[in-house]
Amino acid sequence: MGNNNFYQTSFSFSQNDIIKFAELTGDKNPIHLDEEVAKNTIFGKRILHGFLGASIFSKVFGTIFPGEGTIYIKQNLIFLKPMFPDEIYTACFEIKEIIKEKSRAIIHTFIKNESGEIVIDGEAIIQNKIYSK
């Protein structure tokens, strides 16, 4: 887990998770759902929706780091490499700055693949009373 300024967790999403996400969002792009279509793309196989991969940030902020009471204010994202079903990824969170008077933190958010390459990079602003201390 690391120190109080850094947190990381491993995760993966299955093809079934991708299907559920497609149903929820209406994004039924065949690159996510149809292996025959996907194998003729630059990726060669089905990929995760970018926002499904990045959804790990919301889960962690709201439940673990910093946890309950967190308000997710802002997030920017750069999708650098594709993510694939059933592969293991590591989501990383590094506090860059705390703004005590607003109970906010600016956090570098990124996801690495098993080779250590960053696949999604970004920065979040969150608010939680723990940052006012």
Explain this structure:
This protein starts with 5 loop residues before the first strand and ends in a 6-residue tail after the last strand. The protein contains four helices and five strands, in the order E-H-H-H-H-E-E-E-E. The chain is 25% helix and 34% strand. The longest helix has 14 residues. The chain has a five-stranded antiparallel sheet with strand order 1-3-4-5-2, covered by helices on one side. The model has no long low-confidence stretch (mean pLDDT 96). Strand 4 and strand 5 form a beta hairpin. With 133 residues, the chain is α+β, with helices and mostly antiparallel strands. The protein has one domain: Thiol Ester Dehydrase, Chain A, CATH 3.10.129.
Highest CATH level, the class:
Alpha Beta
How is the largest sheet built, in terms of strand order?
A: 1-3-4-5-2
CATH architecture: Roll
State the CATH superfamily name: Hotdog Thioesterase
Please write the string of helix (H) and strand (E) elements: EHHHHEEEE
Instruction: Provide the residue-averaged pLDDT.
Output: 96
Biggest β-sheet: count, sense, barrel? 5 strands, antiparallel
